[in-house]
């Protein structure tokens, strides 16, 4: 039922050609909305999350930074002291050519790309960046942690 309501609302909004006022006052004039794009408030989903969007973004970015540091630390420790082998062939090649500084630079480059995407994407898509980068990083930390058991 909820899906049907959302589909009907998307179709109704996609037929509308109108301007909306920028709720944050960042635009110089009226903001043009792409047809079919709804904000959380218009979808009626703004009350679904128990936290504010900015708090959730801060938590996701914090998780990403902590997971990246843990991934670096556990990977370097496992490679140095446990005679482990890097599973990612690209990172293995990078470690062979540039060593640990290249590995750290690659991790920082991924974070930089994430920040760039965060700034470029529309506000309603921004949370996907830290969430999408955090998931594989946290999984890598968990895989590395199994080597210590």
Helix content: 55-70%
What is the multimeric organization of the chains shown?
single chain
The SSE order reads HEEHHHH
Span between termini: 47 Å
How many domains comprise the coordinates? 2
Q: Report the average pLDDT across residues.
A: 79
Which strand order spans the largest sheet, edge to edge or round the barrel?
Answer: 1-2
Helical segment count: 5
**Helix/strand/pairing category:** mainly alpha
Q: What sort of overall outline do the alpha carbons produce when their principal axes are compared?
A: globular
Radius of gyration, taken over Cα atoms and rounded to an integer in Å: 21 Å
Largest sheet: 2 strands, antiparallel
Main features:
mainly alpha; single chain; two-stranded antiparallel ribbon; globular; 149 residues; disordered N terminus; 2 domains; 5 helices; 3% strand
Structure description:
The protein is mainly alpha-helical and 149 residues long. The chain has 2 domains: 1-48, no CATH class; 49-149, no CATH class. 66% of the residues lie in helices and 3% in strands. It has helices at residues 2-15, 40-43, 53-81, 89-120, 128-146, and strands spanning 19-20, 31-32. Strands 1-2 form a two-stranded antiparallel ribbon. Residues 1-19 have low confidence and may be disordered.
